[in-house]
Automatic annotation (TrEMBL):
Organism ancestry: Bacteria, Pseudomonadati, Pseudomonadota, Gammaproteobacteria, Oceanospirillales
Occurrences of domain Winged helix-turn-helix (ranges): 15-77
InterPro entries, per database record: HTH_proteobacteria
Pfam family name, one: HTH_39
Name of the protein: Winged helix-turn-helix domain-containing protein
Highest rank taxon of the organism: Bacteria
Length: 95
């Protein structure tokens, strides 16, 4: 991805922004991917905040190995867009 994904800005706003941009480009992210690639240590919290803001982000369980080859049952979050009232605002923010 881009250098902005490795941002040192750890504010909640910046983390939500990185996560949302990733969702728009890729469409999904796992807990491990969010931590490693987006520098978001608590992805479930950021997903909850995006859901509360009106974004549709279901989660499915899957097994994924960590960097040491150990399997973990983790969540994979899938982005299905925003509720209709947010679509225009989202387009403005991402423009």
């Amino acid at each position: 991805m881009t250098d902005t994904y490795h941002s040192t800005d750890l504010s909640l706003t910046a983390q939500r922004s990185r996560l949302l941009k990733h969702f728009v480009i890729i469409g999904h992210v796992s807990t491990i991917e969010a931590r490693d690639e987006l520098n978001i240590m608590h992805p479930a919290g950021r997903v909850m905040e995006l859901r509360d803001a009106g974004f549709i982000i279901p989660m499915v369980w899957e097994w994924q190995d960590d960097h040491n080859g150990r399997p973990h049952k983790i969540g994979r979050y899938h982005y299905f867009g925003a509720r209709a009232c947010l679509r225009k605002r989202l387009a403005e923010v991402l423009a």
